[in-house]
Design a protein that fits this description.
The protein is of the alpha+beta class and 654 residues long. The chain has 11 helices and 35 strands. The protein has a domain of 254 residues: Rossmann fold (3-Layer(aba) Sandwich). The two termini are 39 Å apart.
Length: 654
């Protein structure tokens, strides 16, 4: 069955010869049309409720084999194939206890896997920090790190460097397998054949993250203290102690990679409340140089081929764009050509051969949930490998268009509107605030958004104040304003859609997950006459409860974070908590929650339920046991989606 699934989609690929002149561009213009050319019936709610079939594809360093992470019978399998013939050499199938989460080719024969477990009562697999290794033919299989390994122990590991000059070892970030966040972590050298380990360097403080230099040495580290301050450290080399580097930073500091000289590091930092810039730091002189900063948005992530090979940044102001640290690097040149050829879709090079001749390219967009290609940079031949969700046809999906609005106090908010295909006026509308609140929406494929648009609804997303990704000042503008100014921004975006003639003012509904679930209820309370219904999924509804329930408080900086973002006035927290103001509601309410949610414990949903029952306010209720922060089981996702669409049809109709 697995072989048939893999070969079916592999054999859909085609190859073509392209003339030398502008070959990458014209090759991929033809290829990109493949993603959008197929015609089929519109997708069903079942199509939007399934996990992706293909999660990643990577090529071996010598180019002879591929490894694809695929969903088979609801679980993940890692499938190895010969690159030329697509013959399956081995399939590492999931069992009732474990499955592959992420994986890395370390040499021409061996792959290292981060394992996730189907553990206890939860539907969603969890990462226990175990590392497994095997060859592409299935030989020499071994759990090389974790409590089920030969060495056992109570530690978790995360691969942080492949040590390109050492084919038998990797570096891992080793930490105590516990909810404790005050224990020191370390960088450990791990033999990928035997599991033998040796500590390389211990962290300078608890909760540290490491940066590895070009020689495989951990020489830069950051950590967050109990006051939510970022501290930085550096080391001059092997065997040398950690030294403080610069002043403590009040906020996020994100090191990216070492420079070619091994004496400088690239990092992202926010200065004077502006969006994060890309900086270069000289470790000897402590000199800081700003290389790039957008006026609008933080860099979303570093663009890289694998663990420690960084050559650019992705910036999401409205649509995605890319900034290259060094355009003389061949990967940067190739990535730029691919991005231009795919007309603005997101492009990632997931892996490449040591000689750079063959690369695996992942392409995705607002309508395209993802496709993988094998591209030969020498012959200029390309082959389509897999579509992440082959049942989704991009040409049947709805386009997401960015917009910007300005608040009364001068903030610029950006967001996205997704309208049903062929319709643009007077539509029933779902306002979909994101979670976090220190997160943001992007121009990208979202199965929930597409499901709603496919059902005939306009979908409005807005990156309200407090969202991450727009600089420290923008994020702090939402502090202590969770239930007031943030909700006003959401309401502003709603009114904008009505004023543009897109949304029917009499058919508006709110829906969101986590902080989005909170906002769905809170905005419906703040403007009861505006919304006909509200759906809260995995929401927090009692702000003081965050200090007593959930996983935020388990971090050493948990209380400091809550004090900073919520404020310490309990009366103000209660004034912004939906559980205390349900008497103001006019909207129909639907509450969806996982019984084993650790981030927003079920106590939040139960408190909201009790408040509604106290005043005999009608509501719909869907709670699933074994589910955490958002549903994972496909049957539960499908049931939830079906009931959401039924609820929406009842109250605002499509």
């Amino acid at each position: 069955m697995l072989y048939q699934n893999v070969t079916k989609y592999v054999n859909q690929g085609s190859s073509m010869n392209i003339r030398l002149i502008t070959k990458v561009y014209f090759l991929l213009i033809s290829l990109s049309s493949f993603v959008y050319s197929e015609i089929s019936n519109a997708a069903s709610v079942e199509d939007f409720s399934k996990h992706a079939q293909y999660h990643n594809v990577k090529i071996s360093p010598d180019g002879k084999h591929l490894a694809a992470l695929a969903t088979v019978d609801g679980l993940k399998s890692l499938v190895f194939l010969e690159t030329d013939s697509y013959k399956v050499t081995y399939s590492l199938n999931a069992n009732k206890k474990s499955q592959a989460k992420s994986y890395y080719w370390i040499n021409n024969e061996r792959v290292v896997i981060q394992v996730e477990q189907m553990r206890g009562a939860l539907e969603k697999p969890i990462n226990m920090g175990e590392i497994y290794a095997l060859n592409y033919d299935g030989s020499k299989k071994l759990m090389i790190f974790g409590y089920r390994s030969k060495n056992g122990g109570g530690d978790a590991g995360q691969l942080i460097d492949k040590l390109v000059n050492d084919p038998k070892h990797v570096l891992i970030h080793k930490r105590l397998l516990s909810e404790r966040t005050d224990a020191l972590t370390s960088v450990t050298k791990l033999n990928i054949y035997t599991g033998k380990e040796r500590e390389v360097k211990r962290a300078p403080m608890a909760s540290s993250a490491f940066l590895i230099d070009g020689n495989g040495q951990p020489r830069f580290a950051t950590g967050v203290d109990k006051n939510f301050k970022t501290k930085m450290f550096y080391s001059e080399g092997k065997g040398q102690p950690w030294k403080s580097f610069g002043k403590d930073i009040d906020g996020d500091f994100q090191p990216i990679s070492f420079g070619k000289d091994n004496n400088s590091v690239y990092a992202l930092k926010s200065e004077e409340g502006k969006p994060k810039g890309l900086y270069k730091y000289n470790l000897g002189s402590h000199e800081e140089t700003l290389l790039y900063r957008s006026d609008i948005a933080d860099p979303t992530y570093a663009v890289k081929s694998d663990l420690n090979e960084v050559y650019g940044l992705r910036i999401d102001e409205d649509y995605p764009k890319y900034v290259y640290i060094d355009e003389s690097i061949r990967d940067a040149q190739l990535h730029k050509a691919l991005y231009q050829a795919f007309k603005g879709d997101s492009v990632a090079i997931t892996s490449k051969t040591d000689d750079g001749e063959k690369i695996i390219v992942h392409v995705s967009g607002d309508r395209n949930p993802g496709a993988f290609y094998l591209f030969n940079t020498k012959t200029m031949k390309t082959k389509h490998l897999f579509n992440a969700r082959p049942w989704i046809k991009a040409n049947k999906m709805a386009a997401s268009e960015p917009y910007r609005i300005k608040t009364k106090d001068g903030l610029v908010l950006n967001g996205y509107m997704t309208l049903p295909k062929g319709e643009a006026k007077n539509l029933p509308t779902i306002v979909l605030p994101h979670g976090g609140p220190h997160a943001r929406d992007y121009w990208a494929y979202d199965p929930q958004v597409q499901m709603l648009a496919n059902a005939g609804y306009a979908v409005i997303q807005v990156n309200f104040r407090g969202s991450a990704g727009y600089g420290k000042s923008f994020e702090e503008a939402g502090f202590k304003k969770w239930g007031t100014k943030i909700q006003d921004d959401i309401i502003l975006a709603t009114n904008y859609a009505v004023q543009q003639g897109i949304s029917d003012k009499n058919r508006l509904c709110l829906m969101g997950t986590s902080f989005g679930g909170y906002s769905a209820l809170q905005s419906a309370i703040r403007k009861p006459e505006l919304f006909k219904c509200a759906i809260g999924i995995a929401g927090v509804y009692d702000l003081p409860m965050l200090y007593d329930e959930g996983d935020v408080k388990t971090n050493t900086w948990g209380d400091a974070y809550l004090d900073k973002t919520l404020g310490t006035d309990v009366a103000v927290q209660k004034a912004q908590s939906p559980v205390h103001h349900v008497d103001k509601l006019k909207a129909a309410i639907f509450i969806i929650h996982g019984e084993d949610d650790q981030r927003a414990p079920i106590e939040h949903a139960e408190a909201l339920k009790a408040s509604l029952e106290e005043i005999n306010y009608p509501f719909e209720w869907l709670v699933k046991d074994k589910e955490g922060h958002g549903f994972y089981n496909e049957d539960n996702i499908l049931e939830s989606n079906q009931k959401i669409l039924s609820f929406l049809d009842k109250h605002i109709g499509s």
